[in-house]
Specification:
two-stranded antiparallel sheet, 4 helices, eight-stranded antiparallel beta sheet, alpha+beta, 10 strands
């Protein structure tokens, strides 16, 4: 049904041209033997002639219109499967007790395409696993809970393609929106 409409639409646009015949070419000969005076009320009133063709009516209109196209890109960061997390930790030296991590150095931004996964931490902290084998601790606003982000998060992609402190807001799949307050690198604790 749609394809029939698509084929008939151009014909409908040409219909006023076919219906007007030779009137637009300036052919003023009468078609029958008797000459009948023709009265054009619009021409007598001094108004512009009424255009039957929608394309010529469009060309004659002097109204300028603007169209604004906006694009919005949202990136989803999903929790990393536990097997992948174990593989990331497999290259680190094995110790009898589970590894302890310390937060060191503040980071201002990380590239969004460098984030491999996310895991909830305690309180208002998330752990980001980066593709270059680093781990980052992200502190959210004090009113936010990390457990709201158990299924990952969405973040609107900026022009620079980075997740930055005091600028970007993370949105959980449950609807919570939280701003990133601090970001620190996690490193293995000594002894």
């Amino acid at each position: 049904m749609d394809s029939l409409f698509a084929l008939a639409a151009p014909l409908a646009l040409l219909l006023p041209l076919v219906a007007s015949g030779g009137e637009e070419t300036g052919d003023e000969r009468p078609r029958s033997g008797a000459s009948a005076p023709q009265c054009d009320a619009a021409a007598a009133a001094g108004d512009a002639p009424v255009a039957l063709n929608p394309l010529s009516a469009l060309r004659e209109s002097a109204i300028a219109r603007q169209v604004r196209i906006e694009q919005r890109v949202v990136v989803r960061i999903a929790p990393q499967p536990s097997a992948v997390r174990q593989n990331m930790l497999a290259e680190m030296p094995q110790r009898p007790q589970p590894p302890r991590f310390e937060e060191r150095g503040k980071e201002k931004c990380v590239p969004l395409d460098g984030i491999a996964g996310v895991q909830t931490g305690s309180g208002n902290r998330l752990v980001l696993f980066l593709r270059d084998r680093r781990m980052m601790s992200v502190a959210l606003e004090k009113t936010c809970r990390a457990r709201d982000f158990y299924a990952g998060f969405y973040v609107e992609k900026n022009k620079d393609g980075r997740l930055c402190v005091d600028r970007d807001k993370l949105q959980s799949r449950t609807g919570a929106r939280c701003e990133v307050e601090t970001m620190r690198q996690l490193v293995l604790a000594d002894g």
